[in-house]
Structures are given as C-alpha cells and as structure tokens.
C-alpha cells in the first residue's frame, strides 16, 4: 500500500504492482549501499552537532547504520522492490531496528540531494580505481617497450607502410594516450568532488545545517553553491562518460592493431592462449577474442554517453524522475571500462613479439624513401625536387620488381647527380630510425629517454 511507504501519507490507494516494479531502482542502485550509509552517518552527526536531533539519537543511528552495513556485506539484507531504492531500503530497516530515532535521520535532507551525494561518492571512488587500472596498463606497456627497444617495425599511415620505427616507440604512443586519459579523469574528479547534500528537494532546508562540516566528514573540498543545480546536475556524470568513451576509443584502436598484427598475414605478435579462443569447426584457429570484445564494448560505452545526454537534454529544473536513468549507463560504463583495462593490462604483459617478422616488414614498401629525399635536401636540392627524384626512383623499382636498397650507385644517379656512395649509409632501416633523433622522435635514445620520463612520473 502507498500509505505504508515512507512517503505514503498523502496517498489513499495502493501503488499499482507493475508501476511499483517499473519505477523501482533498487535492482541496480543497491550497489550504492556503502556510499548511502557513509553519507547518512555524516548527515546524522551533523544533525547532532547542530542540535537538530538529540545526540543519543545520533549514537543509535550511527550504530544502526553500521549494523546494516555489516548485514549487507554478509549477504543478510533482503532488498525490497516495494521500498523502491537503496535510500528507502536502508532507512526503513534502520527505523525498524532502532525505532523513533531512525525516523529522525532524514531531517533536513531529501532523496534528491541524497542520491546526488551517493552518486558523487561512488563515482569518486571508481575514478580512483580506474586510474589505478590505467597505471597498470601503462606499466605493462612500459615493460614491453623496454623489452623491445631495439625491435624495428614499419610505421603506417593509411595502413600503408610509411617509415620504419621502433616497436617501443609505437607502444609509447599508447602510453601518451592513456596518460591523457588519466589527466582527463583527474580533471573530471574536480567537478565530481563537490558536496550537494544540504540542497534538500530543490530549495535548501529550514534547519540550521552545517554543510561544510558534512563536506569535511566525507572528504569533499567544497560544496555546491545553488540548491536547484545541486539536485539536477549530472554534468559530472556526463563528463565521466565522455572521458570513459575516449578511454574505450583508445583501447579499441589498440585492439584493432593487435587483431591485425596477430593475423597470419602479419604475424607481428602472438597473444597468450589465455586471452584467445578456438573455433568450433576449424581446429587451427586461434581467435583474438579479448581485443575483439573490447572493440565491440566501445560502442556500448558510447551508447551510454548518448543515453544520458538524451535523458538530460530537455529536463526542466530541478529534479525529475527521468534522472533515475542516470545510474544504469553510469554503472555499466564503470564496469566495462574497469574490466577492459584490467584484462588489457594482463594481455599486453603476456604478449609475445615476433621481432624477426617485424624487422623484415620494416624494410618493405620503400619505407626509407623519405630518408633519400632528406639526403638530397642536405646535398642542396629543394625538397620538392628531391621528392620528385625519389618518386621516380620508387617507380623504377616497382617496374623492375626490386627494393630501394637493391639500386646500384649508377641507377641512383639516373635520378640525381647529387647522389654518391654515402647514399647507402642512409637507406638502411636502422639508419632511418636513428636519424630521427629529435624530441618525440623514434630514435632509440629518444624513446629510452621518454620511457625513463614516464617511469619518473613525468
């Protein structure tokens, strides 16, 4: 019956059974139990400090909430759909356990500012965890980069062989991406880490509450400044979902490369058996299921961002029931990102690199042609003229089915009289890589220096 609910005083008829199930959120927001109890303990202590409720009641409330926390974590708490959400489930159990004192807990607050607090507390905790998983992935990449500091590979543009690079340099490109992801999360955390409790339903409260005290108890550096915005703001969640989408985009790009590199056509890497599956019909198959699934889950996270953006796009101030739809996309995204990062870190750490195959591929596709153009520029030729001369040399090689390294000096001089015997020192893959000794370049010394910088926390 509605009149049996904690908000049911105004109602005379029971809630429709299906409506009750349809509007309940306890099925998914029960994961907020720890944050809900933390917030309630801080709120109760503030009410006592301000003389709003008796201190004896505060002691009973805090003790009762800790008992409920123990029951939930021991699997001894039965969540009720009829009580709608985590807040009402805990409050009802508290009142049943300690009586009148439990009914005083909700003084000076609303479920609107309570849920805003719970989500911020939860997301704050999860951002810290996700950042830890990013660190694990970065470390796995650094380990592989250190082990492959002399491994050559072709660099690509348009998925065509472009210039030779070190495999370590390629891996360090992803380190840069994931460092930016950490930076974005750190910045997002500033807007998550704000206390909304005290806004009430939308207009504040008539009780002399101390919001700064609650903020201090819960570790928030600041409080929200407008009660309407406090309960209706989900920008922080949207920002996190956007940051999470970028993380997944980076993982998806990496997944695509791992999938390509592990094919029989490339054979650049081999993923550990523990991260692959076989075929039900083809006994020779070893499928890179983990990177494929991470690539697929990326669209799911994008969808969660679009779902919440769409939910929020036309909501008038302040709180609306639509906003209950914020939790499932947020929770699903958190679970997906954490799972993807964790499994990726383990997979990269165990990845085997086929050094010989990468090295052979690095010299194919006329990958050192740009080095010849640079050579001619240093000999005094304008770059565009050098570009044309080398292009003709490549066309000659294609026509005669030969590599650029197979050209004789006489053949080289067909395309430019400035070419001399020192050309052969410039067209090796090793020379090409080590010549790019500029900040951010692929030369061994530069890559090693960057690995050290990241290891040092820079």
Key attributes of the depicted protein:
single chain, 458 residues, mainly alpha, Fumarase C, Chain B, domain 1, Fumarase C, Chain A, domain 2, Ribonucleotide Reductase Protein R1, domain 1, 3 domains, two-stranded antiparallel ribbon, two-stranded parallel sheet, 60% helix, elongated
Task: Describe what this molecule looks like in 3D.
This protein is mainly alpha-helical and 458 residues long. The chain has helices at 17-23, 26-29, 33-49, 55-73, 86-98, 100-103, 111-147, 167-192, 211-218, 227-232, 235-261, 289-312, 327-350, 355-362, 369-378, 383-399, 409-412, 429-435, 444-455, and strands at residues 152-157, 160-166, 194-195, 222-223, 269-270, 352-353. Strands 1-2 form a two-stranded antiparallel ribbon. The protein has 19 helices and six strands.
Q: What fold name stands as the CATH topology of the largest domain?
A: Fumarase C, Chain A, domain 2
| Radius of gyration, in angstroms, nearest whole number | 31 Å
CATH architecture descriptor text of the largest domain: Up-down Bundle
Distance between the termini: 60 Å
The CATH C-level class name of the largest domain: Mainly Alpha
Mean pLDDT over all positions? 94
Structural class computed from helices and strand pairing:
mainly alpha
Approximate shape: elongated
Strand order of the largest sheet: 1-2
CATH H-level homologous superfamily name of the largest domain: Fumarase/aspartase (Central domain)
- Strand residues, percent: under 5%
Number of domains: 3
Number of helices: 19
Topology:
Layout: H1 17-23, H2 26-29, H3 33-49, H4 55-73, H5 86-98, H6 100-103, H7 111-147, E1 152-157, E2 160-166, H8 167-192, E3 194-195, H9 211-218, E4 222-223, H10 227-232, H11 235-261, E5 269-270, H12 289-312, H13 327-350, E6 352-353, H14 355-362, H15 369-378, H16 383-399, H17 409-412, H18 429-435, H19 444-455
Parallel strand pairs: 3-4
Antiparallel strand pairs: 1-2, 5-6
Helix pairs in contact: 3-4, 3-7, 3-9, 4-5, 7-8, 7-13, 7-19, 8-11, 11-12, 11-13, 12-13, 15-16
């Amino acid at each position: 019956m509605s009149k049996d609910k904690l908000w049911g005083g105004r109602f005379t008829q029971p809630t429709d059974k299906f409506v009750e199930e349809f509007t309940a959120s306890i099925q998914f927001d029960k994961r907020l139990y720890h944050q809900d109890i933390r917030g309630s303990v801080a709120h109760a202590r503030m009410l006592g400090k301000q003389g709003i409720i008796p201190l004896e009641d505060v002691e009973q409330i805090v003790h009762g909430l800790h008992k409920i926390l123990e029951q939930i974590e021991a699997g001894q708490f039965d969540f009720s759909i009829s009580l709608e959400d985590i807040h009402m489930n805990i409050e009802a159990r508290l009142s049943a356990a300690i009586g009148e004192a439990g009914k005083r807990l909700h003084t000076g607050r609303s479920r609107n500012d309570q849920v805003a607090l719970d989500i911020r507390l939860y997301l704050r905790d999860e951002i810290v965890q996700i950042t830890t998983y990013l660190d694990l992935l970065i470390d796995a990449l650094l380990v592989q980069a250190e082990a492959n500091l002399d491994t050559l590979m072709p660099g690509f543009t348009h998925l065509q062989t472009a210039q030779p690079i070190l495999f370590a340099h390629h891996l360090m490109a992803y380190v840069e991406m994931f460092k930016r992801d950490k930076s974005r999360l750190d910045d997002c955390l500033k807007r998550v880490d704000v206390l909304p409790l005290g806004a009430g339903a939308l207009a504040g409260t008539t009780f002399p509450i101390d919001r700064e005290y609650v903020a201090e108890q819960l570790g928030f550096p600041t409080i929200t400044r407008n009660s309407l915005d406090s309960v209706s703001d989900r920008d922080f969640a949207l920002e996190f979902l956007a940051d999470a989408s970028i993380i997944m985009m980076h993982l998806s790009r990496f997944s695509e490369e791992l999938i390509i590199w592990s094919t029989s056509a490339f054979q650049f890497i081999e993923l550990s058996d523990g991260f692959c599956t076989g075929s039900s019909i083809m006994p020779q198959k070893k499928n890179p299921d983990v990177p494929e699934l991470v690539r697929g889950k990326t669209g799911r996270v994008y969808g969660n961002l679009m779902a919440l953006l769409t939910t929020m796009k036309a909501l008038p101030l302040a709180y609306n029931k639509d906003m209950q739809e914020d939790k499932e996309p947020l929770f699903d995204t958190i679970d997906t990102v954490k799972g993807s990062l964790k499994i990726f870190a383990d997979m990269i750490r165990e990845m085997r690199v086929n050094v010989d195959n990468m090295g052979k591929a690095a010299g194919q596709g006329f990958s050192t042609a740009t080095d010849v153009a640079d050579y001619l520029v240093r000999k005094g030729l304008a770059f565009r003229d050098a570009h044309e001369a080398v292009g003709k040399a490549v066309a000659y090689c294609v026509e005669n089915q030969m590599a650029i390294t197979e050209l004789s000096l006489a053949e080289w001089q067909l395309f430019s009289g400035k070419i001399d015997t020192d050309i052969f020192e410039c067209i090796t893959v090793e020379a090409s890589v080590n010549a790019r000794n500029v900040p951010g370049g692929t030369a061994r010394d530069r890559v090693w220096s960057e690995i050290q910088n990241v290891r040092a926390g820079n």
